[in-house]
Amino acid sequence: MQPTVPFGRYEQLRWSANWSAPTKKHRRSGLYDAFIPATIATGSFQLGDEAVAAVVHATKALAELNGSSPRLASLSALAKNLVRSEAVASSRIEGLVLSHKRLARAAYKGQGRPSGDRRAAEILANVSALEQAVELGAEARLIGVGDIQDIHRTLLQFAFDEIAGIVRDRQNWIGGSDYHPLDAAYVPPPPEHVTPLLQDLCGFMARTDIAPVVQAAMVHAQFETIHPFADGNGRVGRALIYTILRRREESPRYIPPISLVFASEPRTYIGGLVDYREGRLSEWCAIFAAATSRAAVLAGKFAHRIEALQQSWIERLGNPRRDSVVRELIASLPAQPVIDVPAGTQLTGKSHVAVGTALHALQGVGTLQRLNEKKWGNLWECGALIQLVSDTEKQIGGVPDRATEASGDQLAHPRRAIGT
After folding, report:
1. 146-151-156-160 Cα dihedral, nearest 10 degrees
2. Which strands sit side by side in the sheet containing 338-339, from one edge to the other?
């Protein structure tokens, strides 16, 4: 087996003692190695046979997922549900864990604004950032550093306003002490290298001569290696996967929740990112492609389960006609499982009276449950849909552990990411 060469170079730097740190151990000074990744905008890259086969399989899985047409759910409703599942899983990798029920209620209560639930607001901001990344991929123009900053700004809009959208101007690191990088597991490039490397990354994102799955894998790994922000790197880096898959028309309708697979296999995911940095591109691309294939199959099965559930509701209602309000609401519920009359009117375009009647009919057959009227007002919730999403995640094992939390943003500690 040929020895691998790091995909970049190390630069030895000196860390000066931080005299404001609380203890002598924290005030250490010394030498550390920062990694400066190689540029990729114009490079040529070779994959081994196993990685090529995995990429071909992932490409077919994406085509099958996006080639299917829902019979009962609206296309936009299924797409929205998959985006939300991806955003929730991506947030969980960083230790932001929240039940889908709590998130759905917060989404209704916030209506695009931060609700009283801070954690829910952060995850909903991740949903918005992911939607923004997907929409960016659909635009017929080159992607710039400013676009990546805009995604980051959306992500952190309810968390850290002072660093949202700001490329870091200080050294950051992963692991070790909060006060110095001397014992860090990984030290990204010094700040003066970050903007040029992001510009190079954008040049790579414009290429069309690389297989889309490989391009998405490399964009994600290169972004994480650069680690350009003080916080939010993991979530932005995973969002950029979908910018590429949408831009290259691999996911024109549905996105596969790849983060759900990453969250279920944290050591494989983290190991793959290390593989990339150490020059084992084939190994990382094979891991990424396998996760993409699994996520695409999962998304397809999830869509079928939703349709089976919807069919059971229609049968309980006595098979109402296709253009009925109640059918339209059933088709839209995957996107909005917590609903009231105004929301139903907006979704269907029908009158308040017709929507109210349909919601009561859905409550009558057990599709919807009325929430506490004193607390919530006239509001219904589709518990079966929320439970279906949760059960699907449990089946794949998408529950983060400590190793996963260390892989993305900041080891769940802002000071470790900004080096203060």
Report:
1. -10
2. 338-339, 380-381, 369-370
**How far apart (Å, rounded) are the C-alpha atoms in residues 34 and 220?**
19
If asked whether residues 198 and 292 sit together in one domain, one would say yes
DSSP 12: E
Are 84 and 179 part of one and the same domain?
Answer: yes
CATH code of 329's domain: 1.10.10
Helix/strand/coil percent split, the chain, to 5: 55, 5, 40
Name the domain count of the chain. 2
Per-residue pLDDT 10s for the chain (420 aa) are 344 677 999 999 999 988 888 888 888 999 999 999 999 999 999 999 999 999 999 999 999 999 877 666 666 677 788 888 888 888 888 888 778 888 888 877 655 455 567 888 888 899 999 999 999 999 989 999 999 999 999 999 887 778 999 999 999 999 999 899 999 999 999 999 999 999 999 999 999 999 999 999 999 999 999 999 999 999 999 999 999 999 999 999 888 999 989 988 999 999 999 999 999 999 999 999 999 999 999 988 888 899 999 999 999 999 999 889 999 999 989 888 999 999 999 989 999 999 999 999 999 999 999 987 666 668 899 999 999 888 888 777 644 433 333 344 433 333 334 332
Residue-range definition of the domain harbouring residue 189: 8-300
Q: Is residue 226 part of a domain?
A: yes
Q: Residue 86 corresponds to which tokens in the numbers above?
A: 């991806």
CATH at 54: 1.10.3290.10
Q: How far apart are CA 410 and CA 415, in angstroms?
A: 8
106: nearest Cα among 91, 123, 90: 123
Instruction: Please tell me whether residues 267 and 321 are part of one structural domain.
Output: no
